[in-house]
Amino acid sequence: MVTGGQKLVVSGAIRGLDAERQARILEDAGESLALMGERVVKYRLDADYFRYGRVILAHVPRHTKRLEQWAKLLSEHAGSTVSVLGRPELASEVGGKRYHGGLLIEDYGGLHPAKYHRALREAARDRGAILVSHAPVLNISNEGKAFRVRTRRGEMRVREVVVGTNGYTDRVVPYLHRRVVPVTAYVATTEPLPEGMAKAMIPGQRMLSDTQRDLFWMRLSPDGKRLIFGARPRIFETDERTAAQDLHRMMCGVWPELQPVRIAHCWTGFVGMTADHIPHMGTRDGIHYAVGCNGSGVAMMSYLGYQTARKIMGKQNRPCAFESDSFPEPPLYNGKPWFVPIVASWYRLRDQVDRAMAL
């Protein structure tokens, strides 16, 4: 699911910033989406990329006011084409009775991330890049005008080092390890749906997410035959088989007709979160970094990589909005996300209170 600034608005990340910084961040976030779309066309990337549009769904009636505020910010500063949907209009976007309104962002889209990654690798190789996989970095040492990078497959002496590890940032760069929190994301996909069910559930094949703090996100597969559903199944980490059962129960809470449909696949991965919910790029001890996309990494990591390359080549006409000397460290964080279950419990409790108040 590919966005251009929505997470920064929804998470409240830009709420306390001055108006000029808010505008710059949303402008660059919007540019990240445009850049990715241009790249897909320019290099003819086989990635199943399409601008389906995205609907953020109000899970209680009072959240429709929140959607109106988000619409204003995204329209004015991120250049998004948006419209707020009441419950009657929502029927043309999502089946069922769970949600009370929506924010349609027409510019947003979806792709197949593994195919996008493969297509980028092939395009890079075609242009002379040398890519080496399965070579975990064990140490990076500064040797004056160069760096020595030691990996499990040998050593390199290089002029520039860029760390773009996001949710997989480890102790090799302690500064980043203390600032990027790996949070497990869980995803399940159904077996092929019965004829007509997908169309009834998501008529326009939009990308969907809701306004819960412990949010659901869902979309159809590119061929329109399966539902892909993401959420946090439990407060504590769990295995994929257990997660699949929980995710099936959750998706049936949105669409009860899914009860007899089986889960075909379930998988996990790490999302790179930051204390301020803002992505960060910069340079520390001579090492460039681009990390902390907070769940919007498909477009944002592509963009931060592009901006970092321009910076190294001296071709930036202005600093990127996500480049800052301020990169806050989560309080009491030692590299292990011990507080995630506590936060998840708090989010889930507040969502339950919201629903109870709406009854």
Strands of the widest sheet, in order across it, are 2-3-1-9-10-11-8-12
Q: Helical residue percent?
A: 25-40%
- Kindly report the average pLDDT value: 94
Q: Determine the CATH superfamily of the domain at 53-107 and 182-273 and 340-358.
A: D-Amino Acid Oxidase, subunit A, domain 2
Characterization of the model:
The model has no long low-confidence stretch (mean pLDDT 94). The longest helix has 24 residues, at 19-42. The chain starts with 5 loop residues before the first helix and ends with a helix. The protein has a domain at 53-107 and 182-273 and 340-358: D-Amino Acid Oxidase, subunit A, domain 2 (D-Amino Acid Oxidase, Chain A, domain 2, 2-Layer Sandwich). The strands form three sheets. Strands 2-3-1-9-10-11-8-12 form an eight-stranded mixed sheet, sandwiched between helices. A three-stranded antiparallel sheet has the order 4-5-6, with no helix packed on it. Helix 2 crosses helix 3 (63-77) and helix 2 packs across helix 9. A hairpin with a 2-residue loop joins strand 5 and strand 6 (154-158). The chain is α+β, with helices and mostly antiparallel strands and 359 residues long. It has helices at 6-10, 19-42, 63-77, 87-90, 113-126, 174-177, 197-201, 240-254, 297-313, 340-358; strands at residues 54-57, 82-85, 102-105, 137-142, 147-151, 154-158, 162-163, 181-190, 207-210, 217-220, 227-231, 263-273, 280-284, 287-291. It has ten helices and 14 strands. Helices cover 34% and strands 21% of the residues.
